[in-house]
Amino acid sequence: MYQLVIYLTVLRSCSAVIYSLNETEYNKMPPLYALDEYSSCLLEPGGTYCVADFDLFAEHQSALMDMIQQYSAHKMKHFNHTQIHRGVCVTKTCERFIKDQTNDTADPRQTLEACLNHSIWETYKIQARLNGIRYCKRASDTIDIDTYDVIVAVVYVILIALNVIGSFYDVVFCKKRKKPGNPYLLAFSVSRNWNRLVAPTGTGDPRLERLKLFHGMRTMTMFCVFFSHTVLIMAFAYVNNPLFIEKSYEDPAKQILFNGSLVTHTFFVMSSFLMAFNLQLHAEKHKLGLMQWPKGVLQRWLRLTPTYALVLATISTWMRHLGSGPLWDLVVGSEATACRQYWWAHLLYVNNYVYEDAWCAPQTWYLAADTQLFCFGLLLCVAARSKRARCSALLLTFLASLVILALHTYLQDLEAVVIQSPETYRDLYAQDNTFRLLYIRGHTNLSTYTLGLAGGFFAYYWQSIGKDFTKYKNFRWLFWLCFPLGVLVILSGGLFYTDGARAPTTLRVLYATFYKPVFQALVVMIILGCIFKIDSVYRSVVEWRGFTWAGRVSYSAFLLHTMFQRGLVGSQAQPTHMSDYYVMTVLCATIFLSFSCAVPLWLCVEAPAAAITRAAFASSRDRRDILPEDKDRSDALTDARGEKRDALTASGEWRDIRS
Ligand SMILES: *[C@@H]1O[C@H](CO)[C@@H](O)[C@H](O)[C@H]1NC(C)=O
Ligand SMILES: *[C@@H]1O[C@H](CO)[C@@H](O)[C@H](O)[C@H]1NC(C)=O
Ligand SMILES: *[C@@H]1O[C@H](CO)[C@@H](O)[C@H](O)[C@H]1NC(C)=O
Ligand SMILES: *[C@@H]1O[C@H](CO)[C@@H](O)[C@H](O)[C@H]1NC(C)=O
């Protein structure tokens, strides 16, 4: 308690502690990033271009070096300016320092160091030492198309062919002759899949129709995720005004972005909510048994994996060939290498536990964590079948999850929130313990998942007893408060961006334990409020019809969006100049490209895979068993329950599959 009081006093007088520079002084430092001309460098015969990091130092007293060191010491909000990053055309910029043409371009370390040291010394009177070469590109380098590229190309061709055949089969044989047809071929019918994509939510069952808010929530949460990744990937590469990032910590509006990662966990809540709700609908007509667990897990794997595998394969093969530039290998090539190494961990959904410092599709930690939690949640639901057993199981799990969070934070001495410091962007959090050990793991996200499960159980229960919510209409303001309160919770993370001292352990542990559940409890309240029509303000937004298709393709869009962002940043020939306007433009481009490319991906891969899974499970079992249908949608990123079946029933296809 005493610590807390001291901390809060420090908070109030914080601005005095920080070492800050005005812009004139700031510009006295050597630029953090710079890139030589790339394409003209490689046009010359023997041209060599290297991307490398250099450490600055001074042998004798240097006021400038002291200033750089003092400024960099403030790790939380400043880049480490004692290390500079350069793309250098060795054969042109460093021509004077090349002693032996063959040896010095083959191993340019000495040349680079002498050259950079010279130019830094000339201007700043401090020295530079080579820290490491990221890579060198040579005029003679050719980009080879290897076996994997060919295999993936063949897969593309097969997929396109299947879709063409399936669509023709549908039009020529089934529609004309009004025959049921082969469900496996019909799975690839683009026109049927299109009808599913644009169909309204859950026509028929009023209970399912009430779930349409999930499309809106999914889409809007996805926009938030795209937003944070846009900023992240820019700060990951070369920026010509790092001061823009460093200054943004002082801007309260941008604190929403820094702590906005909280919003990501909404996916866990939606996922578990739908799972709990669907499972109970399913249990109305079927007996729940332990055997449903492996089946449910297998179905989820079959539904998510084909699209995922195709995107990972594209990242590790053809994406590499799509562009070039000084930063291409840093931003795009490095991911391809990592994916070739760790693809198995992704396909087993354990990539949030297994990795080294190389990142393959880092955003997919969410898929792994969600799958792990799904396995746990489904087991809990099929094991605890009575109302009482479920209540106590949920309560116990929730308490356990809080203890897990507190223990991790305390024992591993973690931060309360993932501190978005500039240097952590540079390696996409690979060195950040709070991110690696707490943020992305499955078991540490259990608390929010449990809240979603509870929400799903309550929603079903209240629907089944026909609970009347009209008498609560007077408390609508409480419901309206949820959103502003949520924003407040997000902003409260700013507490941990103070300059003076590190937050005391008590505060860190308490905050880390409770901030996610508190925020997600508000989300669950909004979900329940919309389902039971407590108000129509939020509801009219999230239930907008236009979100229906976007919500359905959001899984594909999620998988695709970083490819566009990396492609854009990686093909820059000069360090990016960041500004609010530029970030917004790139965000809009990301949204547009991801969602419009997600539609073909959904039509040609995701929907057929789901239909095939459905057909396989329907034919191998009792026809009346519609378990595949039910589980099919127990994931936040794919459809909400009911839509596929109802869309199918409407077109007569549902009967086809079963006969
Ligand atoms: C920046 O700070 C230096 C030293 O503190 C001072 O001499 C200079 O006038 C300042 N420049 C501006 C633009 O405020
Ligand atoms: C900055 O980078 C240098 C070189 O990698 C390192 O020695 C130094 O400790 C870093 N400074 C801070 C404040 O992290
Ligand atoms: C260049 O490298 C070769 C083989 O490593 C070595 O024999 C030769 O002495 C080197 N030349 C110079 C000038 O360093
Ligand atoms: C950098 O250049 C200066 C001036 O030419 C020289 O005195 C110093 O030894 C060089 N340092 C390194 C690390 O090469």
Q: What does this entry look like structurally?
A:
The chain contains 31 helices and four strands. By secondary structure, the protein is mainly alpha-helical. The protein folds into two domains: 137 residues, no CATH class; 484 residues, no CATH class. It is globular and about 80 Å long. The C terminus is likely disordered. Bound molecules: 2-acetamido-2-deoxy-beta-D-glucopyranose (4 copies). The site of one 2-acetamido-2-deoxy-beta-D-glucopyranose has 2 residues, from loops.
Helix vs. strand class? mainly alpha
What is the β-strand count?
Answer: 4
Spatial shape: globular
Bound molecules: 2-acetamido-2-deoxy-beta-D-glucopyranose
Mean pLDDT rating? 86
Name the strands of the widest sheet in spatial order. Answer: 1-3-2-4
Instruction: Point out poorly predicted stretches.
Output: 621-659
The span between the termini is 69 Å
* Count of helical regions: 31
Keywords: Membrane, Signal, Transmembrane, Transmembrane helix
InterPro entries: O2_lipid_transport_reg
Protein name: Acyltransferase 3 domain-containing protein
Organism: Loxostege sticticalis
